[in-house]
Fold these 3 entries.
Entry 1:
Amino acid sequence: MNGCARGGVIYCQSGHSARHSEMRALQRDLVEAARRGDHGAFEVLASGAVDRLYSLARLIVGDAHRAEDAVQEALIRAWQGLPELRDPDRWDAWLHRLIVNACTDQGRRAMRRPVEVRMIGLEAANGDHVGMIGDHDQLERGLRRLKPEQRSAVVLHFYLGLTVPEVADALDVPVGTAKSRIHYAVDALRAAIAADERAPIRATSEVTR
């Protein structure tokens, strides 16, 4: 028997892998069907991704309404562009790229409007660096100061838990560029936190304003 018993429960690694493979195969079949114009298949794919896309968009654009608009735009682009997706296994990476692009477009439209970032568990996936940076209020202020491309890279890496190559794939940039964006973004966050700590009164007034 494969696996081991713990507390009377059999844990089977091969069973977990088989289930994962089945889910991947199901997703591949749905993507293939959606590429052929099956609206029902696309609705299943969209419903399975919408919460994740909204969480990412909310972190990137910092506003609930713009996040909702970005998700809608990304899904519309996904439906329209599905025939161009040659590899169904790249559905997730392709969808991440679409949501980032939609968020970028939303950001350009609201360039002069204040950004209010509400954290949704940014430290959950890869908290090694971000977790060391103060509290959520400090992190929110730091995120506001990042360039849009840096914010996207940070959110994909630390919130979604993507590896650097996966971030590069989602952003359609070289791995070195993705690594650089994450590196400089973390440095910028730390600098912002340091500035806040040197001026605690001003930082407090900004939060309560």
Entry 2:
Amino acid sequence: MFERFTRSAQATVKRARDVAATAGSSTVEAQHVLLALTQQADDPTSRALATLGMSERAVRGALEEEFTQALQAVGVAATPPRPGPSAPGRAGRPTPRWGQSAKLVLVRALQVAVDRGHKRIEDRHLLIALSLAEAGVIPRVLRTLDIAPTDIDIALR
């Protein structure tokens, strides 16, 4: 499937795996894809993210807030986990496998590209796919950032 991804989208997917590994996660999830998108160079998708105020710092802050609220909802007071000092693939840490939420983003990105008549999957398709999530971390993070899915679609035009 990755042969249909542009080089930039392939780099985003690789970066998402690195983000997950750095955080000590055993799986790559949708939030890691979103964070990877915030770390890319100047292109239309990064400009759309900047227009929306979705910097890496803002997204990480929203993720921490969402994590804290989720714990409080079940009566646990805790601070969000911090990434460890080890680099991806080191210290015996296995490479994270693809989690369900990230797999769904990849499948949705393909569907978005096909629906729009595009032959290649680009970063913008990944971002739109993320915005289509109806449950999980991503919709709650977008609400925390006060961003509607339609805002993302408009910013990408």
Entry 3:
Amino acid sequence: MRIGIIGAGHIGQALATLGVTNGHHVMISNSRAPDTIAKIIAALGCLAGTAADAAAFGDVVVVTVPFKSVFQIDPTLLEGKLVIDTNNYYPDRDGRIAEIDEHRTTTSEMVAAHFRGSQVVKAFNAILAADLATDVIDVTKRRALPIAGDDASAKRIVARLHHDFGFETVDAGSLADSWRFERAKPAYCIPLDRIELQEALNRAERDVELPHGSWRRQ
């Protein structure tokens, strides 16, 4: 599969590594210019390009930039693409967004509204970047990751990527349901197997958040 990645931060680099390691063709981009990430791509073994290049390159395009920066991306770049949305809303970084604070929408619904010509799947947002390449629960269980989306075929493709990368998949429902594995919910960045993840998704309450940073490993 050809994977375009818009965003060369920790998550973008970790996904590029997993893609290349598992036989996929990967192009990564950052907010500046391809030559500014020459050392990164040399280490990762992938291609570099502009956001437009990565969008055109990918059968699947991962958007992994700070949430507030998503809306600076030209939506026409991703028309007709399957878009993986890894974003999370951090008010201290992104500024307060009333529609999310008042539970009138979800981050991924906002992303889908911006990229109206795309099929958006929420994935890879509920795992720490460092865990993408190294995390195991124990030798008998594989970590499960949640996805959400409004298109069943798009979710199947993302589930195949999960499988390629060594993870199980739990389908959390539509983009409207994706709040269940957003920041500060029981399934957010906690290593869980399939059964444990489903239970964590079921425990999520829209108005209840875990203490800030409690999902980070010490």
